[in-house]
Specification:
2 domains; 3-stranded antiparallel beta sheet; Arc Repressor Mutant, subunit A; 7 helices; globular; about 35% helix; 12 strands; ADP-ribosylation fold; alpha+beta
Length: about 250
């Protein structure tokens, strides 16, 4: 069965899940979204909550939350084929995201927890369970500079740190062929009162990494899976098409 592992389904006993069988009871449940719908609506949701809510007429509060009931008509107005979409679909999509990219609260609101390029205040994210060492992807050329100046946000609102070397390497591959991975002494940052926020189990956010907290580490060899290679290629192709489209305007 092709791509069933990425379906969004609903178990009547245990709620929504990704895959073909409920991970709790093993039932197949009811299909809520096909894999292509999960990908397409997920990409719309990410763009709306991270980058350009104004394109959809959706308002985010200061902490990046949007009312779920306002998201549904915003998507339907631009994607008529999703006329079946309901607030429950959006909530289920957010709660089951495999990368922990979204947070749904008790007020019927949803937000992206990382990767923003618009101003949001994420200081209400938890600060516990941060590893003593986190990891950051850069290049040899950039490393010479940040050893002297530290790390500051570039194209995103927050600096994104990874839980493992491998995670940082894969994140870097979305941008460059041969990323250089460096360590960040999270414990030292805490002693300097530099907050690190836990956006997901694998992604941590901060506003500044001082030079004294940067650690040069030995590079590991990372073997990418076929799925990871496809994901990287697809993201790079979409970025290239966007650049070509912008240059033609």
């Amino acid at each position: 069965m092709i791509h069933e592992e990425k379906e969004l389904r609903l178990c009547q006993n245990d709620g929504p899940f990704r895959g073909y069988r409920c991970p709790v009871c093993g039932e197949t449940g009811k299909r809520l979204m096909f894999p292509d719908e999960v990908e397409s609506i997920g990409r719309i949701l990410a763009g709306m909550l991270r980058h350009f809510p104004e394109n959809y007429g959706v308002r985010l509060n200061s902490h990046g939350y949007a009312k779920i009931y306002s998201i549904v008509p915003a998507i339907k107005s631009q994607r008529r084929r999703y006329g079946w979409l309901t607030p429950f679909h959006i909530e289920a999509l957010g709660r089951t995201d495999e990368k922990g990219r979204y947070e749904v609260n008790e007020k019927g609101e949803i937000r992206a927890t990382y990767d923003h390029t618009i101003p949001v205040d994420l200081s209400d994210l938890p600060t516990d369970n941060v590893p003593n060492m986190t990891f950051y992807q850069t290049t040899p050329e950039e490393f010479d500079l940040i050893k002297e100046t530290g790390i500051s946000p570039s194209d995103k609102t927050y600096i994104h740190l990874s839980s493992t070397f491998r995670k940082a390497y894969i994140s870097g591959k979305f941008h460059v062929d041969s990323p250089l991975i460096i360590g960040v002494d999270s414990s030292r940052m805490e002693s300097m009162n530099k907050k690190i926020y836990r956006a997901s189990d694998e992604v941590f956010l901060t506003l500044e990494v001082p030079p004294d907290c940067i650690v040069e580490i030995e590079q590991e060899k990372v073997q990418l899976s076929d799925e990871e290679i496809r994901d990287i290629e697809n993201v790079r192709k979409r970025r290239e098409r966007k650049i070509m489209g912008d240059s033609g305007n």
